[in-house]
Amino acid sequence: RAKGAGRNRYRFFEAEMTVATQVRMALEVSLRPALARGEFELHYQPRIDLADMALYGMEALIRWNHPERGRVPPQQFIGIAEETGLIVAIGRWVLLEACTQTRRLMDAYRRQVVVSVNVSARQLALPGFVDEVREVLARTGLPPGCLELELTESALIEDIERTASMLRELKRLGVALAVDDFGTGYSGLAYLRRFPIDVLKLDRSFVQQHDEDVSTLGFVKAFVDMAHALDLAVVAEGVETAEILEFLRAARCDQAQGYYLARPMPLDDLRGVIEAHGAPRLQNS
Ligand code: C2E
Ligand code: MG
Ligand code: MG
Ligand code: MG
User: Fold this and answer.
1) Rg over CA atoms, the chain
2) Largest CB tally within 10 Å, which of 45, 110, 185, 256?
3) Residue 5 has what pLDDT?
4) How far is the CA of 180 from the centre of ligand 2 (A)?
């Protein structure tokens, strides 16, 4: 009987796998022409300074408007894009679009904001990546200090020497560097000291744990203090409640993003956020 149940389970699993594989293959096929067909757009999630609750900047997040499936979430296609190498062309588009739109936003409202762009390991591995960033900044006129690149811990462990020297080149351009989803990978703060990182983005799973367990306040406080001692700013991701926001302010976390503050939105909707929160005035740039 146990054997039979096992076989059924196996068949069920196999059928499920087939459906998943089919969906994945269909997505892969429609992902190839998506860029040329203009099916991508960027939404922006505000990042708020916890000291004064002003708008510090925003994270550019890709959205795919699939002609038949509607909106496909990044979790369903970024992995495919990385495996197929399509992420290189998509990432190039994201960088140019984010810098172009941010320059436009700054000019329209005369406010200074920092745009964060997610960069995949495949992009970072390209020999011409630093040149690409330099060219996009020159072409769009975005001040380098208004661009932040978000890297994952896994991108940093690949080829440490090469990556470190490339990040130093990016720093010389004047862009900011952040480690995304910090707390989910293997690296600790000591490991990150090899790289010229400015910002740690604490992963939402890490931030949200503290909803349930108040005793961890001391731990987060200690973490933020340690990051500050290493000259790193800390951004909390996934802030969904007023309690967590208060908790993070008490821990002297620098900035926060999350649904409680604002969801990702089209560029034009940032006007409302600027009006509600304020943002530093744009100097002459
Ligand atoms: P990420 O870079 O860690 O981005 C944060 C994700 O958390 C976003 O999901 C955002 O919508 C979501 N989020 C923000 N606040 C909250 C909250 O309070 N609660 C919850 N539950 N979620 C929140 P999104 O837009 O679906 O993107 C998912 C991931 O896809 C990103 O994670 C990033 O790894 C990747 N991604 C998105 N856009 C790009 C891109 O242009 N290039 C690359 N390489 N990856 C991207
Ligand atoms: Mg990110
Ligand atoms: Mg993140
Ligand atoms: Mg995350």
Assistant:
1) 21
2) 256
3) 57
4) 5
**242: burial class by Cβ within 10 Å (0-12, 13-18, 19+)?**
exposed
pLDDT at 1 over 60: no
Q: What is the pLDDT at residue 158?
A: 83
Query: Of 195, 182, 178, 189, which Cα lies nearest the Cα of 228?
Result: 189
Q: Partners of 41 in the beta sheet?
A: 63
Q: What are phi and psi of 37, to 5 degrees?
A: -85, 0
Residues in a beta bridge with 233: 199
The predicted model scores a pTM of 0.92
Provide mean pLDDT across the span 214-234: 83
Q: Rounded distance, CA 155 to CA 162, Å?
A: 11
For the CA of 260, the closest atom of ligand 1 is 18
Tell me how far CA of residue 21 lies from CA of 11, 77, 79, 80, in angstroms: 15, 13, 14, 12
The phi and psi torsions of 66 (rounded to 5 degrees) equal: -75, 135
Q: Nearest residue CA, atom 5 of ligand 1? A: 237
Ligand 1 geometric centre to CA of 8 (Å): 37
**Distance in angstroms (rounded) separating the CA atoms of residues 179 and 227:** 12
